[in-house]
Amino acid sequence: MCTISWLSRPQGGYEVFFNRDEQPTRPTTGPERSVAEGVAYLAPRDVEAGGTWIAVNAFGVTVSMTNQYPQPAPAPPADPVSRGLLLASLVDAASLADVEQRVGRLRLERYRPFAIAALELAGPPMSLRWDGSALTTKRHPQPGFVLTSSGAIPPRLEDTRRAVFAEAAERNGLTAATLSEVHRSHRPERGPLSVCMHRPEAATVSYCHITVDQAPGDIVFHYAPGPPCTTPVEAPLSLARVDRLAPT
Question: Taking a C-beta distance cutoff of 8 angstroms, is the pair 87, 116 a contact?
């Protein structure tokens, strides 16, 4: 499920690219404007479980999630909570520090393994990985590939996709056009290893591209509601970026 990459913008800010891999029959809605705790945000919705897999808020904080499949697999939670609902609880976060603190306070034993990629205007992205027994955090200062996952062949998948991103950046330069093309591509070959993934039981079912500028202004959310290799991007949604609320 999913591949995430990112890029700094020349005048400040960042762009994030996200392929969602899922069963094509799982119902979803595209991104919508919503408000949580007084904070405006843009996010698509998983109709089945009610959560989301990616969101960007008016503070310029983006949170996104992939399922993870550690080996050996941990025992499943006795009463599992949807991982998408966990991500939905972070949509009003003011910073990566806020994201990290909130996740650290959760009873993570209720969740199956996951990885969260979070971005803000100040500093590089952060990932938080829960493997069923421990939570680890990591910064990703190098633009390009951040996270990926698959329930089919995890040992080969991350190295293969990381190499695809690195080869594309070396060949064409690390630009938004390069990352967008990789997310639509079937390299190294069409199938379970390609970034735009195709398997009999699952596939890349949507594509998101979010831009956040350093200067106050619009946050833009581009979305393709199907495999990005064949599905046009819809008209984008925008959200005015604001400075963080002053402490009271």
Answer: yes
Query: What tens digit of pLDDT does each residue of 182-209 get?
Result: 999 999 899 988 999 999 889 999 999 9
Pairing of strands 54-57, 62-67: antiparallel
Distances in whole angstroms, Cα of residue 148 to Cα of each of 14, 63, 98, 195:
19, 15, 23, 9
58 within 8 A of 41, measured Cβ to Cβ: yes
Instruction: Kindly state whether residue 30 falls inside one of the protein's structural domains.
Output: yes
For residue 136, the enclosing domain spans 3-240
Structure letter (DSSP) for residue 245: P
**Is residue 247 included in any domain, yes or no?**
no
| Closest residue by Cα to residue 30 from 232, 246, 216, 243 | 232
Residue 146 lies in a domain: yes
Q: How far apart are CA 208 and CA 16, in angstroms?
A: 8
Where residue 128 sits, what CATH number does that domain have?
A: 3.60.60.10
Helix spans in the chain (H): 83-88, 96-105, 154-172, 176-184
∠ CA 40-235-5, nearest 5°, is 70
Beta strands in the chain (DSSP E): 3-8, 13-22, 28-36, 39-46, 54-57, 62-67, 114-119, 126-130, 135-139, 144-148, 203-213, 218-224, 237-240
DSSP secondary structure letter of residue 198: B
Q: Report whether 93 contacts 62 (CB < 8 A).
A: no
Please report whether residue 248 resides in a domain.
no
68-110: pLDDT as tens digits? 988 888 898 989 999 999 999 999 999 999 999 999 999 999 9
| 107 three-state secondary structure | coil
pTM value surpassing 0.85: yes
